[in-house]
Amino acid sequence: MIRIRSLLLAFVLSSSIFSSAQADIQIPQIGTAGASALSIEKELQFGAAYMRIIRAGSRMTNDPVLSEYVDELGHKLVANAEQVRTPFTFFMVTNDEINAAAFLGGHVMIHTGLFLNASNESELASVLAHEIAHVTQRHIARSIENQAANQNLTIAGMVGALLLGLANPAAGIAVFQSTVAANMQNSINYTRSNEFEADRIGIRTLANAGYDPTGMSDFFGKLADKYRFASKPPQMLVTHPLPDTRVAEARARANQMGQKYVPPSLNYQFAKSRIIVRHGTMDAKASLSHFERALERKEFVLKDAALYGKALALFANERYSEAKTIISDLDSRHPNNLFLLDTLSDIDLSTDNTSQAIKRLERANKRFPLNQVVVLNLAVAYQSAKQYEQAESLLVEFLHEHPDNVLAWSQRRTIEQRLGKTAQSHVSRAEYLALHSDYQRAIDELYSAFSRSESTLERARIEARIEQFKLAEQKLQEF
């Protein structure tokens, strides 16, 4: 963390990043007031740095099943959004507070607490649609430009302060107090018109993607009522205030579109149950009691989702046979569901049924090639069966397509150690560290790999990667 904080401090203090001419990028005029200060190219650079810092300093929910779910949901919305100019990345942070936030370059963070307070997928999707609109309308770039001018800061200094605050709020406050940005808070300050515009465009995206447009007004209204007199509202209401006029306008706009019946989403309810058991505040016994009580009292949206939650809780209590009975029954009624496939794999590997897990996952790998849930589970199963070559081959192929997957790099390193591939294991460790902005340690790992490599070609590749990491660290410090 000392290393990360020093890099982040460089963000705040540097003023040189925008001394060179900006790239000439042609974009539509609507919603692009910040283009003169932040080009799309610079947004992507800042966004990439943001993701590496977030990995290093926050409680990212590295759960492949949940990651797959939010990625699919988010990109379904993006496919129906307007003026999309950047790729989008959706990721989750383990935090019970209700919040979601967008940053430069199309990066959207979702707190697990958002799932626990949204009643259905349309409500959750409405929050994501709102954040997507902040990105597509470049509200973030415009806000940063305006705040930098008001506070007499460079754009780089403003972005650096925001990165630090978003990645580590406590540290962020300290930096703000030591600069002229002391009154900026740990957030991007959207204007009232930004919020209304994000609502208006977000509702349209929501409806175009097939969700109930009233999901936004329902969720906003519920939050406004719940926290109307709260002395400490959730962060989402601090950064996205909900005056009555905003809630009323969202409701009126949704009513114009007409309410749409959307059947309850099984995967959304599965995700909610998974968060309660594996990423919530309850221990194993409490989560089991929670779902047993819900099933007994019929307090659920979908019974199968409550059963899934109970099975996860039984697994957490090491009652594997009971858990498998429930999951197997659910799997027979919902075949090829990744939530169920993942849990079946967990149970099989915990009960020494490795060969059964491998057969099931190999079939799934043919159906869902290079899917992170399947690949990561299958790599673990191969490793459990001491089939290290198969595991390595699988991960090499997967990482070629998904080089930012930290779990895959961690698994690959472990497998290479088992295979006695010491040099390559150092390389894999270096890639993992670089994804967390820890470039100096990553470079040290590459030097270790270089000294242990006997291949001239491999040494050349390692040398090239060292130079790439040095340049990446230099750019991060220049920010």
From TrEMBL:
<keyword id="KW-0862">Zinc</keyword>
<dbReference type="InterPro" id="IPR011990">
    <property type="entry name" value="TPR-like_helical_dom_sf"/>
</dbReference>
<dbReference type="GO" id="GO:0042597">
    <property type="term" value="C:periplasmic space"/>
</dbReference>
<feature type="active site">
    <location>
        <position position="131"/>
    </location>
</feature>
<dbReference type="GO" id="GO:0051603">
    <property type="term" value="P:proteolysis involved in protein catabolic process"/>
</dbReference>
<comment type="similarity">
    <text>Belongs to the peptidase M48 family. BepA subfamily.</text>
</comment>
<dbReference type="GO" id="GO:0016020">
    <property type="term" value="C:membrane"/>
</dbReference>
<keyword id="KW-0645">Protease</keyword>
<dbReference type="InterPro" id="IPR030873">
    <property type="entry name" value="Protease_BepA"/>
</dbReference>
<feature type="signal peptide">
    <location>
        <begin position="1"/>
        <end position="23"/>
    </location>
</feature>
<feature type="domain" description="Peptidase M48">
    <location>
        <begin position="68"/>
        <end position="253"/>
    </location>
</feature>
<feature type="binding site">
    <location>
        <position position="134"/>
    </location>
    <ligand>
        <name>Zn(2+)</name>
    </ligand>
</feature>
<dbReference type="Pfam" id="PF01435">
    <property type="entry name" value="Peptidase_M48"/>
</dbReference>
<comment type="function">
    <text>Functions as both a chaperone and a metalloprotease. Maintains the integrity of the outer membrane by promoting either the assembly or the elimination of outer membrane proteins, depending on their folding state.</text>
</comment>
<feature type="active site" description="Proton donor">
    <location>
        <position position="199"/>
    </location>
</feature>
<keyword id="KW-0482">Metalloprotease</keyword>
<keyword id="KW-0732">Signal</keyword>
<feature type="binding site">
    <location>
        <position position="130"/>
    </location>
    <ligand>
        <name>Zn(2+)</name>
    </ligand>
</feature>
<dbReference type="InterPro" id="IPR001915">
    <property type="entry name" value="Peptidase_M48"/>
</dbReference>
<keyword id="KW-0378">Hydrolase</keyword>
<keyword id="KW-0479">Metal-binding</keyword>
<protein>
    <recommendedName>
        <fullName>Putative beta-barrel assembly-enhancing protease</fullName>
        <ecNumber>3.4.-.-</ecNumber>
    </recommendedName>
</protein>
<feature type="binding site">
    <location>
        <position position="195"/>
    </location>
    <ligand>
        <name>Zn(2+)</name>
    </ligand>
</feature>
<keyword id="KW-0574">Periplasm</keyword>
<dbReference type="GO" id="GO:0004222">
    <property type="term" value="F:metalloendopeptidase activity"/>
</dbReference>
<dbReference type="GO" id="GO:0008270">
    <property type="term" value="F:zinc ion binding"/>
</dbReference>
<dbReference type="InterPro" id="IPR051156">
    <property type="entry name" value="Mito/Outer_Membr_Metalloprot"/>
</dbReference>
<dbReference type="Pfam" id="PF14559">
    <property type="entry name" value="TPR_19"/>
</dbReference>
